[in-house]
Specification:
The protein is mainly α. It has one domain. It contains two helices and no strands. The radius of gyration is 16 Å and the shape is elongated. Keywords: Membrane, Transmembrane, Transmembrane helix.
């Protein structure tokens, strides 16, 4: 789920940068990119994904 959120944030950052939209310092394309990188790092670390099928997984 965080991987999808990161992709959306990267797309928003791209649109802001490509369209050369003047935004405030809080909503700059760099900030969207950094938030996207943080979400991607959490996704790669395994946070925010599906539960592992270990002890708490489905029974067969």
């Amino acid at each position: 789920m965080l991987g999808i959120a990161a992709a959306v944030l990267f797309f928003i950052a791209f649109l802001i940068n490509a369209a050369d939209i003047a935004t405030s310092d809080v909503l700059s394309s760099t900030n969207f990119m950094l938030i996207g990188l943080a979400a991607l790092a959490l996704h790669v670390a395994g946070i925010g994904g599906t539960r592992p099928a270990g002890r708490w997984g489905r029974r067969r």
